[in-house]
Design a protein that fits this description.
By secondary structure, the protein is of the alpha/beta class. It contains 14 helices and 13 strands. The strands form 4 sheets. Strands 10-9-11-12-13 form a 5-stranded mixed sheet, with helices on both faces. Strands 4-3-7-8 form a 4-stranded parallel sheet, sandwiched between helices. A hairpin with a 5-residue loop joins strand 1 and strand 2. Helix 7 packs parallel to helix 13 and helix 13 runs antiparallel to helix 14.
């Protein structure tokens, strides 16, 4: 009997040691499976490696997460992402909506979804989100995916966050190689003067604005690069006399995978041409007007938009640049969507 009791005690001690060892190993793994990343505004954020549950504000962020192959980790989105049911293939439902946008967040819903991290943009409610979510252990990460010049860094950031480093590098390399080609080919080419307009009449782009680098990377000379205000009047455009006009969408259209109709494109162009005295502008006289949908211009942090604009302005200098093929790749390979034509006017073929 004594031998039997002694045997049981030995077994219990062995189990205890084994459990302790396993617990120590588990704790060690948990410690090792953390990472510290630097976000778009320089904040150091400690996150699990990889993040498996995230909520996201801003469609540019959602698209870039999709591009690195991690959209399945997203369990909640803002309304702007949710409403594009075709662009995200109906992945998100109303119960996953975390607010209208990055400035109007529903913290109760975020807490209910219990993500590891909220990913939003720098112009969102970052400090408020930190304060509200810290008691629940939910981290806040800033990713400014709408800035073209931060595309490479943001790919790297999201690659680390979701342990998709290989996919993120491949995506970054593909699009950055297109920008490198444009820069090389246009190095000594005189720049063409362009007036850019985004949705509203007179809403252009200046340094620091979301669209400025898209226009710069195309090799264009932005006629309002020295302006102090993004809102300009029609007389100012006439005085600057751009050689080309490029417009993205109009005020009544939000970003959607479904392209405008030919009639909708034509209506936007007709409105531009029929503005008082605009028939005196070189771009209008020579019919040098290029339209992009809200959806197509934003691909890969607006690099797709820059590629289209570069090809429109400098077709002879960019023979190996094929924007419609790039857009097709963005859709099929990086957004996992079927290719759909019609997002630019005039339209491009794969050979253009």
């Amino acid at each position: 009997m004594k031998k039997y009791v002694a045997f049981l005690l030995c077994m219990l001690m062995a189990c205890a040691v084994l459990v302790a060892g396993c617990g120590g190993e588990k704790a060690e793994k948990q410690t090792a499976a953390m990472q510290t990343v630097t976000d778009s505004i320089g904040r150091k954020v400690e996150l699990p490696y990889p993040v498996t549950k995230a909520v996201v504000a801003n469609a540019y962020n959602a698209e870039l997460i999709n591009a690195v192959g991690a959209l399945d980790r997203v369990i909640g989105v803002d309304y702007n992402i949710y409403q594009d049911q075709t662009g995200f293939k109906g992945k998100f439902n109303k119960d996953q909506v975390i607010g209208k946008g990055q400035r109007e967040l529903n913290y109760e819903k975020i807490v209910e979804l219990n993500p590891e991290v909220l990913i939003l943009t720098g112009n969102g409610s970052v400090s408020e989100a930190e304060e509200k979510l810290k008691p629940f252990g939910i981290k806040v990460l800033v990713c400014d995916a709408y800035y073209t010049d931060e595309f490479k860094d943001n790919c790297e950031l999201l690659g680390k966050v979701f342990a998709k480093e290989k996919e993120a590098k491949e995506c970054s390399d593909y699009f950055m190689s297109k920008l490198d080609y444009i820069k090389k080919q246009l190095k000594d080419v005189p720049k063409k003067r362009v007036y850019f307009e985004y949705r509203r009449v007179g809403n252009t782009t200046i340094p620091g604005n979301y669209f400025y680098n898209m226009v710069e990377y195309s090799g264009a000379d932005n006629v309002f690069k020295d302006s102090q205000n993004v809102e300009v009047d029609s007389e100012a455009v006439i005085r600057r006399n751009p050689q080309y006009i490029v417009k993205v969408s109009n005020v009544n259209v939000y970003s959607t995978y479904e392209p405008p109709t030919i009639e909708e494109h034509q209506a936007i162009k007709d409105e531009l041409k029929n503005r008082p005295s605009w028939d005196t502008i070189d771009a209008v006289k020579n019919d040098n007007i290029f339209l992009m949908s809200h959806y197509v211009h934003g691909g890969a942090s607006k690099i797709v938009g820059a590629i289209y604009l570069a090809k429109y302005l400098y077709p002879e200098q960019l023979p190996d640049l094929h924007p419609e093929q790039v857009f097709k790749d963005w859709l099929e390979k990086y957004q996992h969507l079927p290719y759909i034509a019609g997002h630019t006017y005039p339209a491009y073929s794969f050979d253009d």
